[in-house]
Amino acid sequence: MTSGPHLPQERRLVTAIPGPKSQELLARRSEATSASLGMAIPVFVAQAGGGVIIDVDGNSIIDMAAGIATVNVGNSADRVVANVLKQVQSFTHTCFTVAPYSGYVEVCEALNRLTPGTFKKKSLLVNSGAEAIENAVKIARAFTKRQAIVVFEHAYHGRTNLTMAMTAKNIPYKEGFGPFAPEVYRVPMAYPFRWLGDASKITEEALDLVTHKIEKEIGAHNVAAIVIEPIQGEGGFVVPSKGFLPGLAAFAKANGILFIADEVQTGFARTGDFFACNEEGVEPDIMVTAKGIGGGLPLGAITGRAEVMDAAVSSGVGGTFGGNPVACAAALGAIATIEEDNLVARARHMGTIISKALEAMKSKYAIVGDVRGRGAMQAIELVMPGTTEPNSKAMMDAVKYCQQKGVLLLTAGTYSNVIRLLPPLVMPDALLEEALAILDEAIAASN
Ligand code: PLZ
After folding, report:
1. Is the CB of 157 under 6 A from ligand 1?
2. What is the CATH number of the domain that holds 199?
3. Statement to judge: residues 317 and 210 lie in one domain
4. Are residues 51 and 158 in the same domain?
């Protein structure tokens, strides 16, 4: 069997989408699995690697999702596979807090080295993005001895009880799932396309609104942490206006508040920097990562100032599976791939191809209201022509059109009107260009 990265890098349709074998499995899926689970594309996967997913009917689909920005290094990347095989043959689990192993320490050393900030850092490993956010909040509260957590409009931080409270959008993430955790306060986001004030003063105005809320409504001295995605993911790839992140970080510092960057979706070369915070030189007190760190295996991490990371009581953090040895081996393979194959530069290169194509769509089609993002994390926001009114139907039609042509794309946005591009960073240029050409056709058809 050809391994993932060595699959033919081509779009090839041999049946309609979904084909007969996928249809059979879809029927079993609806019988056997919770109906509350979503599904972006109705095909079952047989193999994946580079920039393609091969389904059980033999269709080769261009993967513009990367498992939601997770397989940045591609599926079954060679170094990930080699490390995982070696690890599973040695041992699969001891629990790091029962009997430690070097892989966990090596991943933490790599995170401490790679995340922004030259100060002394330490890390903690967990199983997922949501669990990492939960731990970042626990640690921030233990360190500051304060309780309030400040989050933003359009934010997404996960599906556990605390992270649901921190997530902005009700349906589908929160509907029927309350009550939510207390002491979470939501403040405005500097969202350039939808700013209601003076567009030329957005950063200043947004920072004024945020600091006013923190000072007058919460009390800055009560705030443990400000938690923000440097580019919002599920919320629609909202890139805050320049200066907003450094302004927040400075305000946090001046008030003894920890600045926590949620880089779960933006991390590990995705945006054309190792981390999105690098762009404006922001050095978070705590950085939360997951997704791209593990090369497809479940892993999350909390990395921060040593004194902050040491603040919780002894044995106050942990978990059975956190930093599982196989996931750590995969992460070391993924990190080596990013560094040795210079995927940061690769993401930048892909970014120039993507923004050129998306800007061309914006100039041709009135439904494309906004193009935004960085590197291999970019999106278009679709609107009713000549307005900012969300156009959810166009988004759904365009994504469906692409699926039928063998291109997998994800949606996003508070208003369900954003198409986001998250290709694996190892996708060949020709395949990326082909996917973009099909998206262009799809937008033309929905315009
Ligand atoms: N923080 C910024 O993007 C996960 C959610 C997929 P977990 N986003 C994908 C879905 O529908 O559940 C995410 C994120 C940011 C936190 C998380 C949560 O990470 O690993 O899904 O828990």
Report:
1. yes
2. 3.40.640.10
3. yes
4. no
Counting ligand 1 atoms within 8 A of each CB, the residue from 175, 291, 321, 414 with the most, and so the one to mutate, is 291
What DSSP line would sit under 268-282, residue for residue?
A: TTTTSSSSGGGGGT-
For the chain, how many structural domains are there in total? 2
CA distance 315 to 320: 12
Q: What is the pLDDT of residues 258-306, one digit of tens each?
A: 999 999 999 999 999 999 999 999 999 999 999 999 999 999 999 999 9
Q: Which atom of ligand 1 is nearest to the CA of 68?
A: 9
Ligand 1 centroid, distance to 129 Cα (angstroms): 6
Which pLDDT tens digit goes with each residue over 206-254? Answer: 999 999 999 999 999 999 999 999 999 999 999 999 999 999 999 999 9
Nearest CA to ligand 1 atom 16: 157
Domain range enclosing 402:
20-63+343-446
> Does ligand 1 lie within 6 Å of residue 234's CB atom?
yes
Domain with residue 427: its CATH number is 3.90.1150.10
pLDDT (tens digit, 9 = 90+) per residue, 124-137?
999 999 999 999 99
Residue with tokens 């949620």: 262
Q: How far is the CA of 157 from the centre of ligand 1 (A)?
A: 6
CA 429 to chain centre: 22
